[in-house]
Specification:
Blueprint: E1 6-10, H1 18-26, E2 30-34, H2 37-44, E3 52-56, E4 58-59, E5 62-63, H3 64-72, E6 79-83, H4 89-98, E7 102-104, H5 110-131, H6 138-144
Parallel strand pairs: 1-2, 1-3, 3-6, 6-7
Antiparallel strand pairs: 4-5
Length: 158
């Protein structure tokens, strides 16, 4: 079964990341939006957080670093991609060192964006599989089943 990839766009004004939205839609990625760190926290701390988060650098109530902190506390691994307005190698290095999966500056070619989104999605799916709680073994499942008592037989109580 293939997992349905979800992405959240964290942007100050709706439409700021419009080109990214179109690129994600072309890849059949389900998209949600947040306009602040507070809104992003609700999604990130839900039972099923998005796989990917594309965030602008500055937000109304914080910034990209706050989004990284929120994502680190999510119930499942999340990959954050910082979306900047201009290339800044020092900022790029800082964002990656802080835990961002990637740092992009639109406009990107369709093939470059496809590479970023697919790589980030594959990475986070792998992380979620690795961090998933182990499934019960047949022995554990059998042990968890209630004991069946034959009519007329007593069950010893411990």
């Amino acid at each position: 079964m293939q997992e349905n990839i979800t992405a959240m766009l964290v942007e100050n004004r709706p439409g700021t990341l419009g080109a990214l939205r179109l690129g994600l839609e072309k890849q059949s990625i389900t998209i949600s939006a947040a306009r602040s760190c507070g809104e992003a926290a609700l999604a990130l701390w839900s039972e099923h957080p998005p796989h990917l988060v594309f965030t602008e650098v500055d937000l109304t109530d914080g910034n990209w670093a706050n989004i990284l902190t929120l994502a680190a506390r999510a119930s499942a691994p999340v990959n954050v991609i910082v979306v900047a307005r201009f290339v800044d190698v020092g900022f790029y290095v800082h964002a990656i060192e802080r835990g961002a999966f990637d740092f992009i500056v639109p406009p990107l070619s369709e093939s470059d964006f496809l590479h970023v989104a697919r790589t980030a999605a594959a990475n986070v799916v792998r992380q979620r599989i690795e961090h998933a709680p182990p499934l019960p073994t047949a022995d554990r499942a059998a042990a968890a089943e209630p004991k069946r008592v034959q009519p007329g037989h007593a069950v010893a109580q411990n």
